[in-house]
Amino acid sequence: MGKTLRILAAVIALMLMLAWLASYSFNSMVDDEIHVLTSSAGAGDSLFITESAIQRLPYPVQKWMHRSGVIGKKVPTIVYLTQKGSLRTGPKSKWMPAEAEQYFNTAIPSFIWKVHARMNFFVGFAGRDKLEDGHGNMLIKLFAAIPVVNASGPATDQGSLLRYLGEMCWFPAAAIRPYISWKEIDENSAEATIRQNGTQCCGIFRFNRDGDIISFEANRYMQQDGSISLQKWYIPIKEWKTISGVRIPVRGDVIWKLSGGDFNYFKWEITGISYQ
């Protein structure tokens, strides 16, 4: 019995060591990517949100600028946020608790999102989603070691750029960046188009009468059952708060609106944000 216990203890120690090495390797890779993203910041650092700067924007977007409190502030170049929530991989899958952190570069539209989620006490995964030079890549590793998703290509590029556009709700001042163009739909909604390195996509922001964003929707490529198709991607907002001097959405969902019914796959909450 004593020998068996020693072997079991050795196996457990080896597994823990391998898990630590895998986590260290994954985090080091992402840290290097974050360094590249933040080091490339610099262009447009002198941009400020003024009344004259927002005159070209549609009425509901101007109202959003006032409501968010960015008038008179500098357009941030680097945005850092922390996030918690629950995600799932399918409409009938169990929800998994998740924690994430994300960096954005608004001068050169790009982001890195790192997430850790746990399926149960024993099984977890690490994920990294990024947009760099107009190209997206989603990487998911079981135990931070075994790749289960490594998506790239034109459909991923479109989805990543669209994600950046929708997540601009957390840094409203970027609405005046030259890579985004706007078209008013009505007094409470506007369509935004973003372009980068040959990739273009658009989405619709909807606002309440006070000027808060209440939803973002767009047609985004979704991989399902081995095929890729455009599906409606919908982000409803449930709560807003002022953090670091800016009023932003802090709680909402991310939903695929499919022919067979809605697939809500991420419930998110912003726990902190900073601007540079």
Describe this structure in words.
The protein is of the alpha+beta class. 22% of the residues lie in helices and 48% in strands. Strands 6-5-4-3-2-1-13-12-11-10-9-8-7 form a 13-stranded antiparallel β-sheet, sandwiched between helices. The longest helix has 38 residues, at 2-39. The chain is globular and about 80 Å long. It starts with a helix and ends with a strand. The mean pLDDT is 91.
What attributes characterize this protein structure?
single chain, 276 residues, alpha+beta, 13-stranded antiparallel sheet, 3 helices, 13 strands, globular
What is shown here, in short?
The protein has 276 residues and is of the alpha+beta class. 22% of the residues lie in helices and 48% in strands.
Sequence-ordered SSE layout with sheet pairings:
Elements: H1 2-39, H2 59-68, E1 78-87, E2 96-105, E3 110-118, E4 124-132, E5 135-142, E6 146-151, H3 154-166, E7 180-186, E8 189-196, E9 199-207, E10 213-224, E11 227-243, E12 246-258, E13 261-275
Antiparallel strand pairs: 1-2, 1-13, 2-3, 3-4, 4-5, 5-6, 7-8, 8-9, 9-10, 10-11, 11-12, 12-13
